[in-house]
Amino acid sequence: MKIKQDIEKIHKEIEQIYQKYNFIIGTDEVGRGPLAGAVVACAIIMKKDSNILGITDSKKLSKKKRIKLYDEILNDSIGYGIGIVDNETIDKINIKQASRLAMKIAIENIKDKDGNEVKGDFLITDAEKVDVDIPQLNLIHGDEISYVVSCASIIAKEFRDNMFIEYEKLYPGYNFIKNVGYGTKAHYEGIDKYGITPIHRKTFLKKYFEKKKKDES
Question: How, if at all, do strands 136-139 and 122-126 pair?
Answer without folding.
Answer: parallel
